[in-house]
Structure formats: structure tokens, C-alpha cells
Amino acid sequence: MKTNVETNVEANAVSRIKGLSDLSNQYSLVLCDVWGVLHNGVKAYEGAIEALSAFRKNGGTVVMVTNAPRPRGPVYAQLKRLGVPEGVYDEVVTSGDATQALMRQAPKKMHFIGVYEKDKNLFEGLDIELVGEDEAQAIICTGPFDEDNDIAADYIPVLKKFRKRNLPFICANPDKVVEIGDRFIMCGGAIADEYEKLGGETLIAGKPHAPIYEQAIKEASSLTGKTFEKSDILAIGDGMPTDIKGAQDFGLDVLYISAGIHAGEYGDADEPNDGLLQKFLVKNNAKPVAYIPRLQW
Fold first, then answer.
1. Would you give the DSSP letter of residue 219?
2. CATH code, residues 4-96+208-292
3. Domain positions in the chain
4. Is 169 helix (H, G, I), strand (E, B) or coil?
5. Which class is domain 100-204?
6. What pLDDT, in 10s, does the model give residues 187-224?
7. Are strands 169-171 and 138-141 parallel, antiparallel or unpaired?
8. Distance separating alpha carbons of residues 128 and 13, to the nearest angstrom
9. How crowded is residue 42: how many other Cβ atoms within 10 Å of its Cβ?
10. Phi-psi region at 79: left, alpha or beta (left = phi > 0; alpha = psi -120 to 50)
11. Which of 274, 278, 277 has the alpha carbon at shortest distance from 265?
12. SS3 of 123, please?
């Protein structure tokens, strides 16, 4: 006898496509994740470069949407450094861009969790005073202090202190983990989760929340002079709690990149077990229009 899960998998099976070209004529705007789709933090993916470039050459618009916790300037530089040439995308919108709006509305005295030298651009142009734990009126987090060794549980003692004072916790990077080469490191979203478990108030503008999608569409319209309906837009991403959930909640079609951070759930990254992948999608209430291991044309 078939279980309910098996029945749901069969009823909601998601097709694997050969490339973006299989879907491209249905959409005029692509909102594409960066880390895990266009690059892995060490090198850019040639297939993704070709696919996005081809979509643009055929008249489409591409906005890269990333949970990077800094404004877009450093992201332009990073993409160039990783080998992403001109012509691949029209614009970049970051969680840092969207988070600055939250920071302008928050108390000025903030305690910072993250690596300041890497994310100091987030504070440019803002009237913010970074203070110690005891003086803080709000928390701003871009990620862990030590990306190589910290785990989210390390932050629980200080988070409990912030929770007792009911301090708002602004998370500039909602990702929980990110892939760098062949390893994964913790991101700010994992720390925000711990604060939320304690009953604390978390403020997040990046994926999966609406503000970053609204900003991306607004910028695409400004660049092109076109009005984009949600039915005109395809989101592309690899992260279930951010890319996939965010696009679905916002009402967008989404292409799932299966060889990203969840690849270990269903076998070989480039040749996933379709049955296991389908069960994984059902388990996560994910309903992409299609999936492909790695983005290609």
C-alpha cells in the first residue's frame, strides 16, 4: 500500500529540465540567487554565466538577488574577482541594501555581531553608533565573529541577555549556511533563529521576506521602463528556507537548483536520485516549476 507521502510525490512530481532555455520564453525577468547558483564563493559557474547571458541576449532582464549582508558595491567587485564577465546581469540587489532601510528606523545605538572589516560598508551613510553589549538598544548581525569555528549555540548566552531587555535583532543575512568551495559555513540567519527561539524580535529584509523582492522588481522596472507582473518573473535559487520559500510566498514561479546546499539530501549532486529529490520537495512544501542540478542554458 502506498503511503500518503508516496502518493503526494507522484501527484506533485516536479520535472527536471535540460536548461533555462526550456522555460525562458515564458518569462521576461529573472531574479537569480548568487551564492550557490552563479558561484560557490571560490569560482563562478560557466553554465550559469552562459544561461543568464543568453536570457539577456534574448531580451530578458536579470537581477541578481543575494542575501549578502552588505550593499551591492562590494558584490560587484566580488563577482568580477570570481570571473563573472559583463553582460551576465543587469543589476544586483542585496540583503544589505534592503537592511539599511530597517537600520534607519531602528535605535541608533547598536551592538554589532559579525566581521566588521568585511561588512563595514553596511554602515556607510547611516547615523549609527556601534556600542558594547550593555549600551545597546538594538542588535545588527551580519554573521558570526569566526566563520570557521563558531556555531549558533555559542551565541545563546549573550542572546539571552538581549532578550531580557527586549532588544530588536536586525539580521542582515538571513541565510543559515553558505557554501564556500567544498565546505559550508554558518551565516547570520542561524543566529537569528536562536534569538527567535528565545522569543526575541527579529527584523529581516532579505530572502525569504518580501522587501528584497519588491526592491528587485522596482529596480528592474526602473532599468527597463517596463512593468513586470508576477507571472512575468522566474526566481532561481538553491536554498529552501530562503530562495524557494521566499519566491513562493511572494507569488513567483521558481526554478530549483538542486546541486546547491541541499545536494546531500538526494544522492549525487549532478545526478540526483529523482525519487529522493521529489520526497525532499514534498517534505519542504516546495513547488518549483522545475528543477535542474546546475544552472545552464
1. H
2. 3.40.50.1000
3. 4-96+208-292, 100-204
4. strand
5. alpha beta
6. 999 999 999 999 999 999 899 999 999 999 999 999 99
7. parallel
8. 49
9. 10
10. alpha
11. 277
12. helix
